[in-house]
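Notes from the 1:1 (GR / supervisor)

We went over the backlog. Supervisor wanted to see one worked example end to end before approving the batch request, so GR pasted a single chain during the call. The sequence is below; no edits were made to it. Supervisor asked that the structure be written out right there so they could see what the output format looks like.
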Amino acid sequence: MLKEFLNHPNIVAIGEAGLDKLRGVSLDIQREAFIAQAILSEELRKPLIIHCVKAWDDLVAIKKELMPKEQWVIHGFRGNEQLARQLISHGFMLSFGREFNPKALQIAWQDSLLAETDEADINIYDVYSKLSEALGITIETFSAALERNVSKVFTLLPLPKEKEIKNK
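Structure output shown during the call:
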């Protein structure tokens, strides 16, 4: 039933799958559930959105073992520049929100960066503003790079044209 639900065209990613050494059940059970979701990501050809807390080595080891073709995205990345560099070297993309490490953001800029508002009641424009300011670039330049990254990672349905909306 889950696989059928996730196969719907409006579902653009699998997740939030995760490994968290500070919460939840044992890491062995988390690993088993994570691998099952990663396999679904591959079967359905949808990126995997990942929550990871203090389990980075485990995460990288699983990625090396599974060798996924689909993109893996770290949700709410707040790590340092060394971790950012390591994850990007293994093909991860990093998604930044309101709280972030500016040096890690610099490492992810331009090709490995996404933005999000998941953790707070903040507008995505405010996140874009904060991230572009930290990078020392215009919000337009930031938005253009982000749009390219989003289109590389996600298969999105086209938005209906204004005329089509009025006819409904």
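Supervisor's comment: Residues 71-155 form one domain.
Batch request approved.
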